[in-house]
TrEMBL record:
It comes from the Bacteria. It is an enzyme of class 3 (hydrolase). Keywords: Antiviral defense, Endonuclease, Hydrolase, Nuclease, RNA-binding. Its EC number is 3.1.-.-. This is pre-crRNA processing endonuclease. NCBIfam families: cas_Cas5d, CRISPR_cas5. It comes from Desulfobotulus mexicanus. Signal peptide: none annotated. One of its GO terms (molecular function) is RNA binding. It holds the Pfam family Cas_Cas5d. CRISPR (clustered regularly interspaced short palindromic repeat) is an adaptive immune system that provides protection against mobile genetic elements (viruses, transposable elements and conjugative plasmids). CRISPR clusters contain spacers, sequences complementary to antecedent mobile elements, and target invading nucleic acids. CRISPR clusters are transcribed and processed into CRISPR RNA (crRNA). The keyword tRNA-binding does not apply. CDD domains: Cas5_I-C (cd09752). Belongs to the CRISPR-associated protein Cas5 family. Subtype I-C/Dvulg subfamily.
Length: 217
């Protein structure tokens, strides 16, 4: 059994990076299901539930901007992080020594309605009414475990309850093929990325279930 919700997500910029672009960041045309799941988890998440994205409503025109961003080119090695966790040794990286400027093709002025539901991961804590009520209250009060963002942490998302489905800029466009899009990462299978064919019909993208044949590695 599943339990649904609907939220509105807005932001000045968004960058949902295409994994095939290695050198510079290039965003997909719209928010990916994995990014939408991350926003829902920022509002409310428990080990006993798993969010599944059902539909993405694209309200605004798809517009891109070219910008330059400062990024850190290196990561702290996993072994160093584990050692710090074990013995409490200092953990830091000098950003000034690893900073580089990179171009990015990002989305501008994004506005989506996300329809989703949660499913239980087991029988423990499987109280649907409790989880649905907590999520609703946290959403209405603007409470988050961390700031929801649109692909990159420097692009914060404004998250609101979506009582009604609003008209899309693409409502008169019968169909637009957006190509293969990242659905999510299969963490139990060695963090394998899985994709689906994203087709927007009158401004709405129907996201296939994670286990369906439409989702491929």
């Amino acid at each position: 059994m599943s339990y649904g919700c609907r939220i509105r997500v807005q932001g000045d910029y968004g960058c949902f990076t295409r994994p095939e672009m290695k050198a510079e960041r290039v965003s997909y045309d719209v928010i990916t299901p994995s990014a939408a799941r991350g926003i829902l988890e920022a509002i409310y998440w428990k080990p006993s539930i798993r969010w599944e994205i059902d539909r993405i409503h694209v309200l605004n025109p798809i517009r891109f901007d070219n910008i330059r961003r400062n990024e850190v080119s290196a990561k702290i090695p996993t072994g160093t992080a584990k050692k710090a966790m074990k013995d409490g040794s200092p953990l830091f990286m000098a950003a000034e020594e690893n900073r580089q400027q990179r171009a990015a093709l990002v989305l501008r002025n994004v506005d989506y309605i996300i329809e989703a539901h949660f499913e239980f991961t087991g029988e423990e804590d499987a109280n649907p009414g409790k989880h649905a009520d907590i999520f609703r209250r946290r959403l209405e009060k603007g409470q988050h475990f961390h700031q929801p963002y649109l692909g990159c942490r420097e692009f914060p998302a404004r998250v609101l309850p979506a009582e009604d489905i609003l008209p899309s800029f693409f409502s008169k466009e019968p169909e637009r093929d957006l190509g293969w899009m990242l659905h999510d990462i299969d963490y139990p299978d060695g963090m394998t990325p899985r994709f689906f064919r994203a087709v927007m019909k009158q401004g709405i993208i129907h996201v296939p279930p994670w286990q369906s044949a439409e989702v491929r590695s």
